[in-house]
Amino acid sequence: MNSPETTRPRETTRALLQRRQSFRTRALPPLAEIKRSVDDIMGRWPDAVRTPEDRDREKLAQSMRLRVSEWNWENITTQRVISAAVAVFDKERCNRPELLNVREFYFSEIATREAGAFLDGMVGVYLDSFSVSADHTHDLARALSARGSDFGGRHRKLITALPQVFTPDAAPRGLAQLMIETDDAYAKLKSIGLSRPHTSGLAEAAQKYFVKSLAPDLADASGRQKLFNWLTPQNGPVLQAGSGPAVEALLSVWRTQTPPDALRNELSEAIIAAWNDPRLHAGGIWSGFDPDLRAVLLRWLTHQDMKFFCNMVTATQNSHMWPPRRDFWLKLYDDKMIDEAWVAFGSEARRYAESNLLRGGKTDMNRRFARQLDRGGSTSLLIMRIGNKIVVDGCHSYKTHIFKIDDKNAPALYKRQYYCDDIMRASRNSKPHNSIQNWSQWVLQHV
Fold it and tell me: What is the C-alpha separation between 136 and 139, in angstroms, rounded?
């Protein structure tokens, strides 16, 4: 006897399909959150290998030379191999004859190693050690260009944005063009895979063309902003090495003309906030700086310091004798008699200046001005060099004192602190301001 299962009519295929639930299309989730997470990870850990400190590089290079010569690869990681490559291909060692076998080892490994951390790390070595005139740059470029399809996502992105990246003669101009086409070159280079744009040898080579292209536009606010976005990025460190020519280009615009006061103050404060005051620091970008352009900046700073002092006294001292004194000093500056100026604020004036005069947010009072410590900080000083004389004027009833520049008691400019009573006691040539006409004639006679 047949079971009910065997006697029930068989359903057609069409009936079965109609009885089943319909297929549902699953939409992909939004990718923006994933992209943000990836960008965050790349920002926190931009490279798999830490760049070795200068003091460790020679040891790394010699250790790798020994391993290659003895073919001993015990207890070594890929990260250490790449760190050693940073040392072997840096400026100090890239041409050293005793490291030739080590360099050849790296070229061989690039050609044969499977895709992964080593290949990606060697792209980083190429970018950071890039120098268009260096043999190792061309050798690395040839080796890496044959493996382009094996790189990780960051470097594939770089190749897409800059197809000539492994053509050393063309790569700097190509990268410079990308920098010119955007308002924020630093952010742009990070977005295409250069995790630390300021330390990249390729970016340093591109900067020359970038600055040259921007130079005609640096009189305009948009051109200056584009340059500062590269030199002092909002989300990155201030560019130090190689920034001198860019700052020179910025000042070259004003070699034969003077910008408005507001712009002059803005530029000078931005420059010294990023690269220090050249009156206080001889190193850094200032050691090889164009002396004529340095003189332009020093003249701006002289004017600015005088204006800071004058504005502070104008706002805090109610005396009919001050306005003619102020006008006298500013006229001497306009007549190009005042070569240098430096301000030492007392504590009261310092608080006022910080609250009312320095609104740009870029001025560090502790680095920008000296302190005057006598008289409870009630007196502030303007210290000037006029030819071969040092002239010290002060607010309120403080006399004007004039010293010969070679006088051992003359207060030196650009010290961090001063004592106005010590200066007064050391002075042998001073004049009060109770007769402005006599006082101004006396100053002109003695300078």
Answer: 5
